[in-house]
Amino acid sequence: MTTAPRTWPCAATTCHRDLRDHELDARQTICSPCLSTLHSWLHEIPLQLIVLGGSRQRETTGAAGRAGTRTPPLPGRDDVLNLLGPAAWTSVRDTDGDQTGAVPIVGVLGSWVRIVCEERRWNGPAAPAAETLALWLGRPPVLNWTARQPWAGEMRDEIHGLMRTIWGVTRLRPQRRPVPQPCPRCDSLALVETDHEAYIDCTTCEARFTRGELALGAVIAVAQLDVA
Ligand SMILES: [Zn+2]
Ligand SMILES: [Zn+2]
To answer: How far, in Å, is the centroid of ligand 2 from the Cα of 140?
Structure first.
């Protein structure tokens, strides 16, 4: 029997981190930062749904002809309806990628809920609505189990795609701000923090740090300056 190498990449295609020892020990296939991001996205969906619902509402009232308002046309109204549309609970995966338009939120989330329920023999949420599906997938027991599955990277990438579609319609993307501190790993001033995210990203070397790690990095940097 051969021993697997101790460096193993995170299974998410948009992530370039190698799994750390404690992540490998926990049999994770995606890294903890990706897991944390997935948690943030799933908990952001209920907020985005409020905005999407509002966009759909304004479209219906707009049909009555409010000529007095000079508001520009809402972006992507078809996308809103597609995103909020119903999805067949059974025909879920678009493996050929030939689906046109945005896949409904219920369709994307529902497919992953179904996979989790089938493999784990859990009962899914009582009501298959977008919000309940998102919050169900975002529960820690579900996420922690998900992180150890061979398809966790695919799920992370697919929900990232869903979030990008939602952000494109609502224009409410989590805000990113520069962090005025050099990256502890590559020393460049390229750290960025994002709303709702537990991790701070380096846009140069793609390392991710918790606030605690960054605070420690700052302390070490100051100590090295004192020594020099
Ligand atoms: Zn990752
Ligand atoms: Zn860096």
So the answer is: 29
Spatial separation of the C-alpha atoms in residues 116 and 123, rounded to whole Å:
9
The structure tokens listed for 66 are 């409010």
Instruction: Give residues with Cβ within 8 angstroms of 170, minimum separation 6.
Output: 48, 51, 52, 55
- Buried (b) or exposed (e) across 34-62, using 16+ Cβ within 10 A? bbbbbbbbbebbeebbeebeebeeeeeee
Ligand nearest to the CA of 190: 2
The residues that bridge with 178 in the sheet, in sequence order, are 192
Say how many Å lie between the CA of residue 18 and the centre of ligand 2: 15
Output the pTM of the full model. Answer: 0.72
Whether residue 108 has pLDDT greater than 50: yes
Q: Helix axis angle, 105-120 relative to 32-62, nearest 10°? A: 140
